[in-house]
Automatic annotation (TrEMBL):
Region described as Disordered: 1-24
Record GO cellular component, one term: plasma membrane
Residue ranges, compositional bias (Basic and acidic residues): 7-16
Annotated protein name in UniProt: PIRT protein
Annotated membrane topology: Multi-pass membrane protein
Record-annotated membrane-spanning stretches: 54-78, 90-109
Length: 132
């Protein structure tokens, strides 16, 4: 088997220049993606803002209710009583955890929205006074 000859471009480039090229493009991509998400001023609807916590709350409530049903089934004379006694509390705790996480997420989003509004107001105020 013969080893194919290397192209002159590969042999001339130093490893430092390759590293600089990759790190430069990666940082540029990171900056551009972050700047798009932070500085967009398009108003979003309430559903766009709160859809993730609402989904987490509804899934948590459903799992919590399933845990209540499974736990209550362990009270009756059923063939696999031990399985219900183990799975019921697991679903209860998982549902409660999702429910609480979703309920805590909503005030966090509200606080971020207020901070974003304040920073936009300060930016416009600053540009008004310093651009004269």
């Amino acid at each position: 088997m013969e080893i194919p000859p290397k192209s002159p471009d590969e042999s001339e480039k130093s490893p430092q220049s390759k590293e600089l090229l990759t790190s430069n493009t990666a940082s540029t991509l990171c900056i551009s993606s972050r700047s798009e998400s932070v500085w967009t001023s398009a108003s979003r609807s309430k559903w766009d803002i709160y859809h993730k916590p609402v989904i987490v709350i509804s899934v948590g409530a459903a799992v919590f209710l399933l845990g209540i049903v499974i736990t209550s089934l362990s009270c009756f004379q059923i063939k696999n009583k031990e399985v219900f006694k183990m799975c019921g509390p697991a679903f209860l705790s998982l549902g409660l955890m999702l429910l609480v996480c979703g309920l805590v997420w909503i005030p966090i989003i509200r606080k971020k929205q207020k901070q974003r509004q304040k920073s936009q107001f300060l930016q416009t105020l600053k540009s008004f006074f310093f651009n004269r």
